[in-house]
Model the fold of this input.
Amino acid sequence: MATTKKDPVLVVLQLSGGNDYLNTVVPYNDPLYWDNRPVVKIPEDEVLPIDGGVGLHPNMGAVRDMYNEGDVAIVHGVGYPNSPRSHFRSMDIWHTCEPDKLGTEGWLGRATRDLDPRKENVVTTVSFGPSLFRALALPGVPVACVDDLETYGFLPAISQEEQRSKILDRFARLYSPAIGTGPVMDYLGQTGLDSLAGADILKVAPERYSSTVEYADTTIAGKLKGIAQVHMAGLGARVFYCDQGSYDSHASQMGMHAGLIRDASDAIGDFFQDLREHDAADNVIMLIFSEFGRRTHDNGSGTDHGAAGPVLVIGDPVKGGQHGDYPSMKPVDLQQGDLVPHTDFRSVYTEVLEDWLGLDAPSIVGGSFEKPGFLA
Done:
């Protein structure tokens, strides 16, 4: 008997640079918010309320609409102990699940290995951006890395199939001697060979795509449109990764943050509308995170590096609403002037891995962590 069950798909959107928690999910009914933000604050009459105490940035209308439909989970106070407040180190921690040492294996690289242990599909995981995210990197695990789907591929301008095949064959033979000459060359060689296969698979996605949704002309909208194209092409991709930024808002934060968060929210809204139009949304969730939040008290123009932040999980299968409490802004509860995380980021990963992708989470995240409960 044929089955129509769809494989679950995960999309990760990384807000690079340290997104401001307090001005994204705004605790507008807490007087300490106004005390700490004399300049870098969202006017109360502009906040988009989601309950009596918390609201969203005014440029997050598309996400607020999805929240009202029950499709957005906000996980409060996510992070890890003793934040180094370094972009690079914090991203390493989020990417490798190694807060106490320098990790070398990406958590989604391990997940990809477990999803496709025989490497039968080189586009099981697809990264949208100019370089491979560390979260996806694992020797021996193929990941397709795409900057622009419309021009993606090796030698796309060569139209004659015979000539292109000859050049690709030479390229493959160039890489082949690297196999077996050492771990680094093994990794580079196999990556090149896998990329050849991935390029030819993914090039069909734009050809199969048709939609009434008009995405904005922004970088993040282009990435999410590309993810929609690949997902709806039915190529068996299970994990997608992309980023937007930079949210590093030490100065002139208000206008910069407003533009970035608007572009992100609008693109997310268009992405899910596109998927729903094609009956392709019911097996997709999106996880949105930043490496840390910003300092509670503004610096007169922006905000400096902080610790705790929110994670948003979006999609039809999500148990919408707020999960966990907003971290306290009382001076006695702050650490170095920052909101203190109370939910380990690996708890979020654990729920996604086990309850969505059906994988063994402890072997991927390095331990057992209590799930926040955002999946229905």
Notes: Residues 154-160 have pLDDT under 50 and may be disordered. Residues 9-152+203-365 form a domain with the Alkaline Phosphatase, subunit A fold (CATH 3.40.720). The first strand starts at residue 9 and ends at 16.
